[in-house]
Specification:
Length: 416
């Protein structure tokens, strides 16, 4: 009986040891498997990263097999020099120069006592636009009249002190003070006089004893009222704008021309334009070309009309056609260009190599580089453009079917 129990105990211990052994083995296996998985993931990650880097590098490179090259019927060539004379379409509006626009304000505020202006009213130089009233106007005239007569007294006193000084009767200090008093009052009188002139009050009438509580605002140009910002009974502050006037006798065109067309335009080029509300064709010519590119990639071109038309309203939208003079420039056939996401592209042949195809047969492979290019103006067959810095005038350029290369490049990028 004791022997049986002993053997049973040994068997149980052996089973426990075996379980522990296999558990350890399983743990080791799990660790090994996990290590392999981590290594595999790192390798896959590195492979993905390498593939991504390759994709970024090759987004501008495309390769055609010999069969694809022949099927595409690619023609290679170099730059051409042509006289490009094309019509450039542009939108814009009518405007007037700053000197033909007037914002009417007052140097000293007041109550609007009278005005009868409406938008569209025609006014001439000297016409009364509004009458303003303020007690400050009375005070200013009073100060001017008092200071002017005080100046006359000080002038007499200065002359008297000069005579006494010559006779050595008075002190030099007294004579100098009379001069200083006279000079300071002279400055004050002149300052008050200029303030009256700004308000449209004649200083001479004030000295004649004619004091007024009102001033009249008058027009300094011939033109039309475009804005009325006041009404009768309103108190306007100093330098507040009351009216806006415009002289339409010199209306001009402000055109927005895309930057790629600017190199074709020269001063005095002929322009034909029409209003959106009027199909009448009018003539103009290029007078100024802006030197700044706007946020919409356009440049402002200033044009003068051949015949002034005061009936045209500033701010009217127009459609214009500019006819540049023929200009010799580098150019490529239109079939050499393809439109991408952000700009036009052309393709140049980088190299030709010999590679084996899927059947193990050696054949030529044609390697092309996609290059963004700036173009400006065109005629029926050619487009003017400037030679990019990264290629030479002797580079082999794809002159036709550029869209085929673009399609192959996009398919390769998507596949990667």
């Amino acid at each position: 009986m004791m022997k049986l129990l002993f053997n049973s105990a040994i068997g149980a211990a052996l089973i426990i040891n075996l379980k522990i052994y296999f558990m350890k083995q399983n743990i080791y296996q799990i660790i090994i498997v996990a290590t392999l998985l981590v290594f595999t993931q790192c390798k896959q990650s590195n492979t993905t990263e390498e593939k991504s880097n390759t994709q970024r590098i090759d987004t501008n490179h495309v390769t055609l097999t010999e069969a694809q090259y022949k099927e595409a019927n690619i023609q290679l060539g170099t730059w051409s020099t042509r006289s490009i004379s094309s019509t450039i379409k542009a939108n814009g509006k009518l405007d007037v120069p700053p000197q033909n626009m007037l914002s009417v304000s007052v140097p000293l505020g007041g109550l609007v006592k009278q005005t009868s202006l409406l938008q569209g009213t025609h006014v001439k130089v000297g016409d009364v636009l509004a009458v303003l009233e303020n007690s400050e106007y009375i005070k200013l005239q009073q100060e001017y009249a008092e200071s002017y007569h005080q100046l006359l007294y000080l002038e007499t006193e200065k002359n008297r002190q000069a005579e006494l000084q010559a006779a050595q009767i008075n002190a030099t200090k007294t004579y100098q003070k009379s001069i200083a008093d006279y000079d300071m009052m002279k400055v004050r009188v002149e300052a008050l006089k200029q303030q009256l002139v700004l308000l449209g009050i004649a200083p001479k009438t004030v000295l004649d004893g004619k004091i007024s509580s009102t001033i009249s605002l008058r027009s300094s140009i011939d033109g039309y009222v475009t804005k009325v910002l006041v009404n009768k009974g309103k108190f306007v502050q100093t330098n507040e704008v009351l009216f806006e006037l415009v002289d339409t006798r010199h209306t001009h065109c402000e055109l927005q021309v895309f930057e790629q067309d600017i190199p074709l335009i020269q001063l005095d080029d002929k322009v034909e334009f029409s209003l959106t509300s009027d199909a009448t064709k009018r003539k103009a010519s290029v007078h100024l070309i802006g030197k700044e590119i706007n946020s919409d990639r356009t440049v402002q071109v200033h044009c003068h009309m051949d015949k002034e038309d005061p009936s045209l309203l500033p701010g009217s939208y127009i459609t214009a056609y500019i006819y540049p003079s023929s200009k010799s420039t580098t150019a490529l056939p239109k079939t050499a260009f393809v439109l991408g996401e952000q700009s036009n592209y052309i393709y140049i042949l980088e190299s030709v190599s010999t590679e084996k195809n899927d059947k193990g047969v050696s054949e030529n492979a044609y390697h092309f580089l996609q290059i963004p290019i700036h173009s400006f103006g065109s005629d029926d067959q050619y487009r003017a453009c400037s030679i990019p810095n990264n290629i030479t005038s002797t580079s082999k350029i794809v002159l036709n079917n550029a869209h085929i290369l673009r399609a192959v490049l996009l398919n390769k990028t998507q596949a990667e």
